[in-house]
Structure formats: structure tokens, C-alpha cells
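Reviewers asked in the last cycle whether our approach scales beyond single polypeptides. To address this, we selected a multi-component target totalling 582 residues and predicted its structure end to end. The input consisted of the following lines:
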Amino acid sequence: MILKFIKGFSLLLFALLILVPSLIVVFGASKTDAEVYNAPLSLPERWNLDNYRTLFESSNVGQSFLNSVIVTLASVFFTLLLASLCSFAISRMITVTGKVLFALFTIGLAIPGQVNIVPIFILFNDLGLTNKLSGLVLINVVTTLPISVFILTAFFRELPKEMFEVSAIDGASPLRIYRSIALPLSRPALGATAIFLFVITWNELLFPLLLITDPAKRTLPLSLISFRGEYFSSYSMIFTAVMVASIPMVAMYLFMQRSFIAGLTAGAVKG
Amino acid sequence: MSARTGSAPTISGSGLAPRRKRKRDAGIYYAMGLPAALIFAIFYFGPFILNLRYSLVKWDGITDSEFVGLGNFIKLVSDDDLFYKVLGNNLRFTFLVVIFQTLLSLVFAIFLVKNTKTNIALRTLYFFPTILSSVSVGIIWLFLYDPNFGAINLFFNKFGLESLALNWLGSEGSALNAIAFTQVWFHTGQMMVIYIAGLQQIPQELYEAAEVDGASKWQQFRFVTWPMAIPTTIVVMAYTTIQSFRAFDLIFTMTQGGPNNASSIFAVLIYQTVFSELRIGYAAAQSIFFVLVLVFVTVLQRRFLNTRYEK
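The resulting structure, written as C-alpha cells, was:
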């Protein structure tokens, strides 16, 4: 009885702890500042998009949104391409090379790229890759390769070997086996990895902060940070910006909860 | 299909053509692995080695660098109170987050392990913060923690608990704890889902047998659930540890390490050493220490949990 009460109470409490702050933001984006401060929890007097309009007119959030879309799509695409090719090769190599290659990526998992911020900043400066979206794509690919190779190699290793061997005997080249057997079969694993990559790339702050100073090249998280600096006291505007930055991921989450949860836990478990 | 397997014997019988094909195939496999390996070598291990080199010099990034040998490391270890403060912060932050996040996610996983409609809905809700960005989460909690109009203090004041209405992020005593709380809020749902996957693997018969033997709920947890959940616990704790070391985004958004560096962790310190103080060599030395601490904590944790596991 007491146990049941504790269980119900703690479940409800944590649910409220997530719901209430989320609703404050959703409501706040349709409120004036006075409303936000006086009654953060109440429904807005009138649902409207005024704040969104002001936001897009008075700041370059629109540009940042576009930059984020470009950087995320390109990063996820190239990471998946390179990682799936490499993982397939690793899983098919019987030699030491495959093992060594895999071990190198594992080091990258244990020691996050953050420890390299000093040399990466200097290196990218020297190579002229700062203030460029392509520079961000490159560093995103580098930091997400280890986890992707890890997940995909584990998946390829579980596929029955005979399937590949039969086609190899038939004279199919490795590239053909990769394209017409391995890739189609690994759609679920690729999907899970893609979602994981989408979320972390879309939300990444550190490297944009390091490499981008030009306001026109900002991604959304970076834009959000500087926006907060400017609109320090206007939480209605800040919440509107938070909404704009979160809506794509939230919408995807609502439609594909299962794949999202699978993807984001695969990233953790395999990592 | 049968025609294909039928051709197999001729392969092992004749020699040259398939062997040449195998050699060619091996070449192609190397070529497939190469782009990823090359990019990773150049932009991950390359900077890593550069870091070692920078750690031996004194350099502001503008004028010529000056070779100082192990000077940066000596100064770091023997004469830098800030460094020790940040080391302590980082360890405390990691410890708090790992303990509370693991505990909470295990408890919620046990509560929500059955696949009922309500449970699935609650899981979806608990998991939700994971998909948000650290910046968004940081901003939301900046508002909640605000001493003047934040929801948390409004709540305490309303219920006559004024003594609890603190300046959460503004005072040295509470800033790091407040951020740790936010981090737990942020990722408990993610770890809970991992636990649920692990708990659902436990054979139901074990619980039935325990019930027949008259085991109480607590005994069932103690002698069935917990031993069976240790492998998952290892995964959860290892992941949470790395995640907490990576909390740069959240801390940078909420306090930038302040007040008076009370909530600074390694990544924030390194960032500030480079960009506010322009001490590149010194920041490189800090990064190398960061790696050592991370490796040390990870190894220690594995050993601790593995010995528990073997018992």
C-alpha cells in the first residue's frame, strides 16, 4: 500500500517535473514578458505567432535555422556513408587490420573530441576552415565517426557470413555486396544511427562556438546563446527562440518515438 | 540459389582465378575503410599529437612560441589553485550525476518495466528531454532557477518555504549542484530506457520461483533484479560518466563556470584558458590532464563494478 503510494507519487512528480517546464516554454512563446513573469504557468491570453514574427524579422534566426539544416543533413550523410563503408570493410576483414582499425575508433569513443579543442581551433584556423559550414561538417563527421563505426560494425558482424560469401563466390565485388546486400539489410541499424546523429549534430554547441564568429554562419544553438545575451530580460522572446530550435526534433520525436528511443539508446549501449 | 551453391566446389578445386579475386577484394576492402580511417587519423589523432607538442610551449597564439619543456605541467600541478578547484568540481559533478541518475533511472525502470499503455506513455514523456539541446535545456532551467521570478522560488515562497528560495545559480555553494540536478533531469529518461531493455531480459521464472519461496518485494529486488541488472548498470554508469565530462554545453549556457569558477569543469576551464587568457600551451597541458583523469575514472569504475559483478 505504502509502496504503491510512493510509486505513484514519484512517477507523477517526475512527469510534472518534465511537463511543467516544457509547458512554460510552449505557453511563454505566445505571451508578453509581463505575462511570463507574473504567471509563467497560465495559458496565454491569446494563442498567437507575434513573437515568432518578431523573432524572424529582428534577428537572423532564419539564417541560423537554414545553417543548422544544411550542417546536420550534410554531417549525417557523410558520417553514415564513411562509417558504413568502413564498418562493412572491418566486419569483412579477417586480418589484423580490421581489428586495429576498430580499436582506433574505440579510443575515439572513450576519449571525447573535446580534449582536442586547442589544436583543432589552431588547425582549422590554419586550414581556413573557420567560419565555414564545411568546417563544421568536417569536425562533426570526425567526432561522430567512432560511435557510428561502433554501432554499424556490431550490426554487420551479426549478419550471417554465408550470405556475403555466396555472392562473393558468384563473382560480386565487395562494393556490389555492400550496395545490394549489406546496405538494404542494415536499414534498421542505419536508421537508428541516423537518428542518434541527427539529435547530437542538431544540438551541438562546442565546435560551432569554437569555429564560428561570423553571425551569418551561426547554427541554432550558437544563435540561441547569443540571442540570450541580447534579449537578456525578455524571456518571451527567448522561449520563442527555444521553440524554433526544438520544433524539428520534437516533431520527429512525436512521429517516430520508437525509432528515436531505439536510436538514442543504441548510441548509449553500443558506446 | 541451388545453382549458386552448386558452383562452389569448382572454386575450391581450381586455384588461380578465385585467389586473384580474393587479393583484389582485399584491396577493395582497404579502399573502403580508408576514407574514414584517414579523416579520423588526421583530425582526431593528429590534433592529439599536436596537443602534446603545444603542451611543451608557452604561446599566446600571436607572438612566437617559447619552449618551456614540462614547465606547464609543473605549474599546473604545483601552483594552480584554480586547476585543483576545477578538478574537484568535475569529480563532484560526475559523482553526483552518476549516483543520482543511475539510481533514479533504475527505480523508474522497475516501476515502468511492464509494457502497459500508461507505462509506455510515461516512458515517452520521461525520455523527451533527451532530444532537446543542452542550450535549450540550460535556458529553460535558467528561468526556473531565477532568484526573482523563477518558478522554483515562486513555488517555495507560495508554500511558506522562503528559507529554501535560494539564488541557485548565483551562489558558490549551490551552482554546481543545481546544474547537476538539471543534467539528471535531462538524461534520466534515456538511462531508464536502457535499464528497461535490460530488466525485460530477466526470465520471469526467477520471480515466480522467488514468490513461491515467499520472498518479499525487497528480497526479490535484492536477490533477483539487482544481480541480473549489474551488466546494464555497468553500461549506464560508463555512459553517464562520459556524458557528465562532456557537460560543457549545459554549463556554458547556464553559468559559464561561475560564480567564481564554482561550477567550472575541465572543458570550460580549457575553453577559457584559450579564449579569455590566450594561454594556448597551458590549455594544451590542461587537456592532457583531462584525458588522464577521464581514463583513470573510467578504469577505476570498471574495476569496481567488475569485482562486484564477479561476486
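The first helix of chain A runs from residue 2 to 28. We regard this as preliminary and will revisit it once experimental data from Aim 1 are available.
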